[in-house]
Design brief:
- The chain is of the alpha/beta class.
- It contains seven helices and twelve strands.
- The chain has one domain.
- Strands 1, 4, 9, 10 and 11 form a five-stranded mixed sheet that branches.
Length: 330
């Protein structure tokens, strides 16, 4: 059984609440880094259109010139599930036994346990999905459902897709980030787009649209650089370094991102975003808690969901990362 109750020594009074560990949720969605396409039953196409060679010499009777190209990238959400069985009677040796029903045939989870099991169960699911948004890979060698990469094998994340895309602008020769080189790495990302996709950095609303995305640890390095690396204009050590923009562009910290990685692109909460998340339904975050079958003492907790990620234009993304395509086959 999946209910491992180690505290069986209660006597006297007890608290009617439980303390849960710190967790992170789907920060990529919560912090507005992506557009979420909801209600995808099979797949959704992110349609794109471009027009090339628009001009030609003036003539009295012109001939057609220039080409419209329409294509698309797809979101194909993949199935995930959480399912665990347990016996509520295991609580008979725990302080929550006082919340159990009087009769054995009607014995269900203590209300306190039910509340906290559903909460931590869903939070742990969201942690794995958030991480999979960025470093998910269907080619990890771990057995699906096991720990580590076995939790991240259900769909390919942003970084695997970007590293396999020759149109994404990769900062050459990336190295481990430190407080002495991270600002240069961020500037390199800006320079790549300024050189190769200057329309992005010439927009009037560029400071609202373009953002730097990085991991929690990388953001700590960024904060250290603001304090230690800038002689005259750095952040006072008594000030908050978190959420300080870099050259006017928002710096977004995402718990699911890997270290030594910086992404610079347009990430927004509307369909003009370059980063997209696709899912079957927002309501899939609801959980089902029920008795396994009528003649059983066992109960189960279950969740079903489907997710995928993609982006619109690779050539509107600058990426600094020490990861390689091989990183997603381990």
């Amino acid at each position: 059984m999946a209910l491992n109750i180690q505290d069986t020594s209660y006597s006297g009074t007890y608290a009617s609440y439980l303390i849960l560990p710190a967790t992170f949720g789907m920060e990529t969605i919560e912090k507005g880094a992506v557009w979420v396409e909801d209600g995808i039953k099979k797949l959704h196409t992110i349609d794109r259109m471009d027009f090339t060679n628009p001009l030609q010499p003036r003539v009295a009777t012109p001939t057609s010139s220039g080409t419209f190209t329409q294509d698309g990238r797809t979101l194909t959400p993949k199935d995930l599930m959480m399912y665990v069985e347990f016996n509520p009677r295991d609580y008979e040796a725990n302080f929550l036994a006082e919340q159990l029903s009087n009769t054995l045939l009607t014995r269900e989870l203590p209300p306190t346990a039910e509340t906290y099991m559903m909460r931590i169960g869903l939070e742990r699911v969201m942690e794995q999905v958030e991480t999979m948004f960025w470093i998910g890979s269907t080619t990890y060698t771990a057995t699906p459902g096991t720990s580590g990469n076995g939790q991240l094998v259900f769909f390919d994340g942003f970084l695997k897709k970007m590293l396999a895309d020759s149109t994404v602008w990769d900062v050459p020769s990336p190295v481990t980030l430190t407080s002495s080189n991270i600002l240069a790495a961020m500037t390199s990302c800006m320079t790549l787009l300024a050189t190769n996709k200057k329309a992005l950095l010439s927009r009037a609303k560029r400071f609202d649209r373009l953002k730097f995305f990085m991991s929690v640890n990388t953001n700590q390095i960024y904060q250290a650089a603001l304090v230690e690396g800038l002689t005259f204009k750095g952040v006072n050590t008594m000030e908050r370094g978190d959420n300080k923009p870099y050259k006017g562009y928002e710096v977004v910290t995402l718990a699911g991102m890997p270290d030594n990685t910086i992404l610079f692109c347009e990430g927004l909460m509307d369909t003009s975003s370059n980063l997209w998340v696709g899912m079957n339904s927002m309501e899939d975050t609801n959980l089902q808690l029920s008795r396994l079958q009528n003649n059983s003492e066992l109960f189960f907790l279950k969740a079903l969901m489907k997710y995928d990620v993609n982006y619109g234009w690779g050539n509107e993304i600058a990426l600094y990362t020490t990861l390689t395509t091989a990183s997603f086959n381990v």
